[in-house]
Amino acid sequence: MDSNSRDNEYNLAIKNLFHGKIMERASAARQIGHFKDGRATNILVRALNSEEDPIVINRIIEAMGEVKDAKATMVIVEILKKELEKQESEQDKSLLFLIVESLMKIGDKRALEHLGLLSRSCESDLKKLTEEAIECIDPNWKENLRKNSKI
Questions:
Q1: CATH class belonging to 1-67
Q2: Is the pLDDT of residue 149 over 60?
């Protein structure tokens, strides 16, 4: 694909992300993630802040993970915090899985503290994935925790 057609495809995806119907917005978010272009982070954040549909929100978070831009970390963490404020029985498990996977792909250590809260989950699959994410983001996390507790 040449750069001109790639740019046209990217611009169409952005247009659909903001102006399409639900499934067009979800598809556009996924497509933007596949471009793996750092310029998309601000656009995805803006879309996330205005989006109300859970399917589209999930696809935007997934796209942020694909882009792997650390600027998205704290935006995703804020969604994680809101979800963790709910009773565990009311939490959206699929959203939590997507959040953990996206944060793992991004690999920003600022997410570790918040992932630590999820590692106490009663949901065994979620707990396992969260532990994998923590290990992936910081393979020396146990050693670093010991150092920090001695300070």
A1: mainly alpha
A2: no
Predicted structure pTM score: 0.90
pLDDT given for residue 144 in this prediction = 66
Secondary structure class of 111 (helix, strand, coil): helix
In the chain, how long is the greatest CA-to-CA distance? 56
Provide the 8-state DSSP code for 122.
S
- Per residue in 29-40, pLDDT (tens digit) is 999 999 999 889
Instruction: Give the tokens for residue 37.
Output: 């272009």
Q: How many residues does the chain have?
A: 151
Query: Domain limits of the chain?
Result: 1-67, 87-151
Q: How far apart are CA 94 and CA 55, in angstroms?
A: 10
